[in-house]
Amino acid sequence: MPLFSTPFASLDLFRQPPQRDDPLQAFDAADEYLLNHLAEQGVTSETRLLLLNDSFGALAASLAGKAQVTSSGDSHLGALALANNLACNNLAADSVRFIPASQTVPGPFDWVLIRVPKTLALLEEQLIRLQGQLAPGARVVAAGMIKHLPRTAGDLLEQYIGPLQASLAVKKARLLFATPSAKTPVSSPYPSRYQLDSPRIELINHANVFCREGLDIGTRAFLPHLPQNLNDARVADLGCGNGVLGIACALANPNARLTLVDESYMAVQSAAENWRAALGERPVEIRPGDGLAEQAEDSLDLVLCNPPFHQQQVVGDFLAWRMFQQARAALVKGGELWIVGNRHLGYHAKLKRLFRGVEQVAANPKFVVLKAIK
Known about the structure:
CATH class of the largest domain: Alpha Beta
Radius of gyration: 22 Å
Number of domains: 2
Strand order of the largest sheet: 5-4-3-6-7-9-8
Structural class: alpha/beta
Low-confidence stretches: 310-315
Enzyme class: transferase
Protein name: Ribosomal RNA large subunit methyltransferase G
Subcellular location: Cytoplasm
InterPro entries: DNA_methylase_N6_adenine_CS, RLMG, RlmG_N, RsmC/RlmG, SAM-dependent_MTases_sf, Small_mtfrase_dom
Organism: Pseudomonas cavernicola
Largest sheet: 7 strands, mixed
Order of helices and strands: EEHEHEHEEHEHEEEEHEHEHEEEEHEHEE
């Protein structure tokens, strides 16, 4: 594992979730560029510093104990990675304050360092929330690898913070310097809303929710085929997003006991608000989580899942495979995992390696709905 060395520290850093022989690093040249710039400018133990979207804690762990560090992001896996990386490098757990993106981050801050996220709606929401949170003379710097740094990110910084200047490229990374200027306060356009016809519900979607402007086509293919007559079955909506699968299942099965889990704090926030709107005070567990890693073994009868095929900019089926393994562990014998996936991903073959029976429930030219029996 290569060390992440900057003027602030030399650290062993790990991604989350862990993968055996993981070829990917928990940091990149944009992290290094940001920290080198900060070191040139100088910080003290009194500097109030906000980090946004620090994926695996490379920035926060490097700055722990060097300034008053607050980190905020929308990934529960990122929060776990930060905690693990602090511990692995013998840094105090309370040397960084972590605040989920679903909550307001209280300032004021002298520095704001931003890793530009894949979802620019999240960046927009975060920039809007910085209104009134910047100390006099505050500096705002965003960073990203050039191939993942759209022009729109700079436009948002200029719109909500102030005049923008871009750095030269270093190791294919770039910094964007936004100079705070007086702005007319604006209201956030988030959350967004859309209506479903079946079931007839309205769904709200906070800024970082997948397909926040309308139902994604995989879920649309899954909804008509959700299992019925579940009685009081224990059901988990794994990777719940805005909660639509779990809510639809609950509406069709009045006695089912639901758990909704997602690694996005904004997804969990959206799912909780949507559940209350559709089902009132009906009991439910809705929580952020590393999939079903914290779910007791043999504690579920059914798992519903529309698995992701990427983590941030990295595409692959490693997260889906991990979810399938977690579902198998959490299910009772005879329990079922129901999933929807693109045909070309070959989930049928993968599920057969874990489950004793795999059946195709439905299919269209793009998607298949599969049932795997433990």
